[in-house]
Amino acid sequence: MVEIKTRAEIAAMREAGRIVANALEATRKVAAIGVSLKELDEVAHAVLREAGATSPFLAYKPSFAPVPFPGVICASVNDVVVHGIPTDYRLRDGDLLSVDFGATLHGWTGDAAITFTVGTPRPRDIDLIAATRRALEAGIAAAVPGGRLGDISAAIGTAARDAGYGMPQDLGGHGIGRTMHEDPHVRNEGRPGRGMLLRPGMTLALEPMLIAGGKDRCFTAKDGWTIHSADGSRAAHFEHTIAITEQGPRILTLP
């Protein structure tokens, strides 16, 4: 069931989204050669505590997971596509890092992700980051009243495939609001004009994940969470929580 949010509820989600944006920016500023993923997790956790918010990631245990998630961020390095656990790993020159983060404030949730390089950037990583960001922007632009869910999926998928990148087929965006994962599932590839009608008040987390090698296959590590590209190529991930409004899509996870 898809819950249609009121203006007041969307405004409450915007406040949660602002915390998300602030935490992501804080982790980006701290991320440097020699800094551990656990240290980045603590930076994000401090933003939550200061804002009086909680984490929808920490202790999250969906049916596929053998253990609850142990951090407030997903920290995915190089060939890790998503769901990287914040460990003692220390960032190295040239690493490609994706940080996914959520916040719940007064019962409403925001979720977003960014990807950036650490130290000396590789040209191919810069291209991958730009393409993933464009795919997200294309999906957001398609999120208009009267459209279809497939329009969003098709826009994301076309941008990714035209740039020559792979995408994990079982992963995608989702509805969001009172909890982090709500209906509907938003595929990152699809056919325009198909699927659920887009209505004002719908809130979605759109999140393309692109794989540099051009292949789609992934595998899950023994920890039950970390998803790697099967060919070992690097991956990037961008995400925003948005609201569909009469005036067009509104991004809720901005500073």
Short description:
This protein has four helices and 13 strands. By secondary structure, it is of the alpha+beta class. A hairpin with a 2-residue loop joins strand 12 and strand 13.
Features:
255 residues, alpha+beta
Note down, in words, how this protein is organized:
This protein has 255 residues and is an alpha+beta fold. The protein has helices spanning 7-30, 37-51, 123-141, 149-162, and strands at 73-77, 80-82, 96-105, 108-117, 172-175, 182-187, 203-206, 209-211, 218-220, 227-229, 235-237, 240-245, 248-251. It contains four helices and 13 strands. The strands form four sheets. The protein has a five-stranded antiparallel β-sheet, sandwiched between helices. It has a three-stranded antiparallel β-sheet with strand order 1-3-4. α1 packs antiparallel against α2 (37-51) and α3 packs antiparallel against α4 (149-162).
Order of helices and strands: HHEEEEHHEEEEEEEEE
Order of strands across the biggest sheet? 6-5-7-12-13
Taking pLDDT < 50 over at least 5 consecutive residues as the criterion, the unreliable ranges are none
- The number of strands is 13
The global form is globular
**Number of helical elements:** 4
Distance between the termini: 30 Å
What is the beta-strand fraction?
25-35%
Helix content: 25-40%
Task: Set out the fold topology.
Elements: H1 7-30, H2 37-51, E1 73-77, E2 80-82, E3 96-105, E4 108-117, H3 123-141, H4 149-162, E5 172-175, E6 182-187, E7 203-206, E8 209-211, E9 218-220, E10 227-229, E11 235-237, E12 240-245, E13 248-251
Antiparallel strand pairs: 1-3, 2-10, 3-4, 5-6, 5-7, 7-12, 8-11, 9-10, 12-13
Helix pairs in contact: 1-2, 3-4
